[in-house]
Amino acid sequence: MKAIAIRRGETKPTLVDVPRPAPDDGEVLVQTLRVGIDGTDHEVVRGTHGGYPTDEDYQILGHEAVGVVVDATTTDFEEGDLVVPTVRRPPAVGSNTYFDRDEPDMAPAGEYVERGIAGAHGYMAEFFTSPERYLVSVPEEFAEYGFLVEPISNSEKAVEHAFASRSAFEWTPESALVLGNGPLGLLTLAMLNQDRGPYKSFDRTYCLGRRDRPDPTIDIIERLGATYVDSRTTPVPDIPTEYEPQDFIYEATGYAKHAFEVIEALAPSGVAALLGIPEDWTFDVDGGSLHRDIVLENKALLGSVNSHVPHFEAAKESLAEFPDWFVDELITGVYPPEAAERAFETDDGVIKTVIEFDTL
Amino acid sequence: MKAIAIRRGETKPTLVDVPRPAPDDGEVLVQTLRVGIDGTDHEVVRGTHGGYPTDEDYQILGHEAVGVVVDATTTDFEEGDLVVPTVRRPPAVGSNTYFDRDEPDMAPAGEYVERGIAGAHGYMAEFFTSPERYLVSVPEEFAEYGFLVEPISNSEKAVEHAFASRSAFEWTPESALVLGNGPLGLLTLAMLNQDRGPYKSFDRTYCLGRRDRPDPTIDIIERLGATYVDSRTTPVPDIPTEYEPQDFIYEATGYAKHAFEVIEALAPSGVAALLGIPEDWTFDVDGGSLHRDIVLENKALLGSVNSHVPHFEAAKESLAEFPDWFVDELITGVYPPEAAERAFETDDGVIKTVIEFDTL
Fold first, then answer.
1. A125 and A202 together in one domain
2. B116 touches B87 (CB < 8 A)
3. Which residues form the Glucose dehydrogenase C-terminal domain (chains A, B) (predicted)?
4. Residue B182, marked binder
């Protein structure tokens, strides 16, 4: 079958021909419809994040997928069911504690592999197999955009943890800021602008980027009802004076200074969720001032990575609420597997691209 | 009546003679028994924290008090009741939102004054008045040590917020580290070593200081069953390798670098509560590495200041559980108001001192 992989020593994705996987009992064989490409995929291709499966000289890419069950073996799934797979799997050797409690997203380094990212083949192939418990059913209308459930689920987790961190007192957030206008930032901004769940508390939302108008991401930000903040004219620490202090901040830039600047941009009792994964970078901070500010204003900062099944379920609800125009504008390219290299190209017009293996 | 105050322009506490306050209806007149001295009092005396009441050229010190009701006016208290006052009060001008919801500890700067610290007279006087709602009843056996309820309440809040921040998943903390072997650090260490409430989950506790043996604080740490960590031989980032990664860290040093070093010392899914209030200090951090570590290991950091009435109630339970020897060893000096200057002296043998105005 066709698959898109990165080979050891190479820095571009390649179409490869690999054997179709055969499901064991308790596993499901899924025919892939679409697989999204995100920043992590680019990092895997560049070799700055993740790693190859043991003893393999290539890794099949992709961790944001939607597909159709074609062999349900002994599972409760039925042929024709539409499914989205989760990403983390138990390692070949080591503890399964976090998987046993259905919280693989909380597993520490070394206690998981990640399909398409670290130590396991991904979903960018005509078929993939998965144990039943790692597949989430989605409705038929998700055939085109169901691959977005995975990235949204990461933000659902971050929001859940952020609200939990403020649950010991009466927290009434009104303002929310997303750092980053890449696809994850825009998906999160759409999520925060819903009128359901914890999101309905946000009256005003902001999204930070560094683009000149006219720009399709700025158009999306404004059409969602949010305010675009240009980081070149308004650095993060200036946001409280230029706009307003932020009750919730979601960081999706991977820019390490943002992890510290958010403290200054938070409102009292505010919380920032960090999701970026920067490389080492040493710089100056006024640590005394930041430390004092966190304490005297009861601020919080938390890191969040990956997600588990209930976050996928929440993400399904969010995706169903998104306006149709939003996903249409977000997806700027749908490519066949043969055009993988082009699907991974990034230029100013590109927001999010997807590989289409099949359609319903 | 006698009171201990700091006068504008001076850097030592002085015994002053001021009029006895008269309670309004709904207020209580309290005869002070004991008032503890802590690091914040020293900062107020040095002029590095807090501020004088408007239009006053002195401030009565003290925010950790226990006393007896001598005039209950129209309140539900009765003469002879033992009480501990909370610290924050609404400002003369401004919003009372946080007081209306009984969460004054979550009020931002400018929306509160603090008795004995910022903008209001404290409790280091023979008598003080307070509205009924800011007084917490304590049992008669708290006459000597009831002033400890206030500092313990700050740690109860920090622990409550820390556990809340980890409530979205199955958190099973086992190890806890207190940074600082001052009185607040030792009180918190005793709290974490209780076999009740959330504390019973901690199997192993550690306390960081920078003292040579023999030292009374090290004796207390070890008698509590905790491990003493000397920061001169084991800096905070080395604690995971020298001892173990820490599920919970409580910072009570006010040393700004600790706010960042705790990230390295935390176990995956761990949380650090910061309580110190350092002055400005710019230094280098590997912000990229810290940011990545927070995210990939789902760590959290939160600031916590002050406390509200339910935290005082929790503190009463903790104080009642402390072994008798602990409070006896912790309080290294009980001084009459006339010896205030001496009560504020710090040398190696001093852990915590208290001014005694009266006894039951």
1. no
2. yes
3. 143-357
4. yes
Strand bridging mode B14-17 / B2-7: antiparallel
Q: Which of B239, B293, B240, B285 is nearest to B263 (CA)?
A: B293
One domain for residues B179 and B50: no
Domain of B15 in residue numbering reads as: 2-137+323-356
**Are residues B129 and B8 part of one domain?**
yes
Taking the C-alpha atoms of residue A206 and residue A221, their distance in angstroms, rounded to an integer, is 8
CATH number at residue A42: 3.90.180.10
CATH number for the domain that contains residue B247: 3.40.50.720
First-residue to last-residue Cα distance in chain B: 18
Q: Number of folded domains in chain A?
A: 2
Sorted by sequence, the CB contacts under 8 Å of residue A141 that are 6+ apart come out as none
Query: Does residue A147 form part of some domain?
Result: no
Which amino acid makes up residue A24? D
User: Is residue B172 a known part of a binding site?
Assistant: no
Helix, strand, coil percentages for chain A (3-state, nearest 5): 30, 30, 40
Residue B132 counted as domain residue = yes
3-class secondary structure per residue, B75-123:
CCCCCCCEEEECCEECCCCCCCHHHHCCCHHHCCCCCCEEECCEEECCC
Measured between CA atoms, how close is B161 to chain A, in angstroms? 6
Tell whether B299 and B163 lie within a shared domain.
yes
Do A101 and A235 lie in a common domain?
no
Q: Per-residue confidence of chain B (360 residues) as pLDDT tens digits?
A: 999 999 998 989 999 999 999 999 999 999 999 999 999 999 999 988 888 998 899 999 999 999 999 999 999 999 999 999 999 999 988 778 999 999 999 999 999 999 999 999 999 999 999 999 999 999 999 999 999 999 999 999 999 999 999 999 999 999 999 999 999 999 999 999 999 888 888 999 999 999 999 999 999 999 999 999 999 999 999 999 999 999 999 999 999 999 999 999 999 999 999 999 999 999 999 999 999 999 999 999 999 999 999 999 999 999 999 999 999 999 999 999 999 999 999 887 899 999 999 999
Contact A36, A64 (CB under 8 A): yes
Closest CA to B4 of B351, B358, B341, B353: B341
Distance in Å, alpha carbon of B102 to nearest chain A alpha carbon:
10
A256 shares a domain with A123: no
**B312 part of a folded domain:** no
Q: Do both B131 and B156 map to the same domain?
A: no
- A358, two tokens: 């099949």
Annotated binding site of A for substrate: 40, 114, 150, 154, 306
User: In this complex, do A298 and B106 lie within 8 Å of one another by their Cβ atoms?
Assistant: yes
Partner-chain contact A295 B287, CB within 8 Å: no
Q: List the structure tokens of B191.
A: 């709290």
Does residue A60 form part of some domain? yes
Instruction: Give the gap in angstroms from C-alpha B240 to the nearest C-alpha of chain A.
Output: 14
Q: Quote the CA–CA distance of B337 and A306 in Å, as a whole number.
A: 59
Whether residue B8 is annotated as binding a ligand: the answer is no
Same-domain status, A215 and A331: no
Sheet with B14-17, strands from edge to edge, namely B14-17, B2-7, B58-60
Residue A51: Cβ-neighbour burial (10 angstroms; 0-12, 13-18, 19+): middle
**Which amino acid, A309?**
V
